[in-house]
Sequence to fold (378 residues):
Amino acid sequence: MLAACEQKKPEPVVTPWGQITDTIPAGDDFDLDDIQRNGELIALTLTGPETYYDYRGRHLGTQYMLAQRFADKIGVSLRMEVCRDSAEMIRRLLDGEADLVCYPVSADSLSGDDITHMKALGWLVGADKDDLRQELAGWFNPKLVDEVKKEEAFLLSSKSVRRRVFSPMLNRAGGVISHYDGYFQRYASTIRWDWRLMAAQCYQESTFDPQARSWAGACGLMQIMPATADHLGLSRANIFNPEQNIAAAAKYLGELERNFSDIRERSERTKFVLAAYNGGHFHIRDAMALAKKNGRNPHRWADVEHYVLGLAQPQYYNDPVVRYGYMRGSETADYVRKIHERYNGYRGVRSPRAGYAPSTTPQKATHQRKKKYQIQQD
Fold:
């Protein structure tokens, strides 16, 4: 009888579709069996290069990758939620909003007996989740940390992109950039872009290889992610088709143009669009917010680029105005710079390497041109 009294019964739940019985009894400890039955592991962390961040639509970071491996081990999906600080992580764990904290928390910062500190990992688990704790302890091996770091380093390297390298210009004398110039001309015109700028972007993305594929799943000439293809109406069966891939990319660039319509200067806006294509629209908006907060012009790329780079540093990605956390800003800044350098090369214009601004004043540059002309005349 005592055992029967202690056994908790499922409670009825009223929904818009009528009364149902919850599959998990009210008040039960949500331990490993329940997590597996529910099919989802909920983890809390902080944003950062060693923990969790978004990279071109995919998630990376040592703590995230370890958590994903553990979720795979127990046969469930992983939902990683980002908190502002360790205090929020601990509070939410105690409130039962998550199953564990995937962040190396110091044991000295904890008090009370409601949380179990996994010493080897530094992760936190609710004290009432004995089965989950034991499963974690049996699974973790310090070698796993080195393994996921090597995996991440490979994924972020150029070796992870499968593509053939083609000439940056097919026929310089004839002004032929690639075999796909006709498509660039056709679809760049729909968004009022110079087709040579879109060609320069294509070379940066795939080196004109229509079969290029990245580890993250980006496909084709313009390296379109499958989810983005779905959004744009591009069939996955045709994602490697050169014309359809370029057409979809132009459509996406047009969407990004509209997202940055508050930037009135067209030449500036294209830099923001390219940055968003590479690093994500929300990260670029975070950098713009930082620029504005610090008295810089949020609509000028040279000002915002500083904060795109800054989003790799805690003082910036932990700033209250930043909503989407850490980003690999140096890659995005290089992406924009290299495309413009190549674009200027396609146009026969010498490209300054820093800041897209002349290295000399206009007056001095004019004097140099006059001097060069006089020498030629002599």
About this structure: Residues 329-347 form the longest helix (19 residues). The CA atoms of residues 194 and 322 lie 33 Å apart. The longest strand covers residues 40-45.
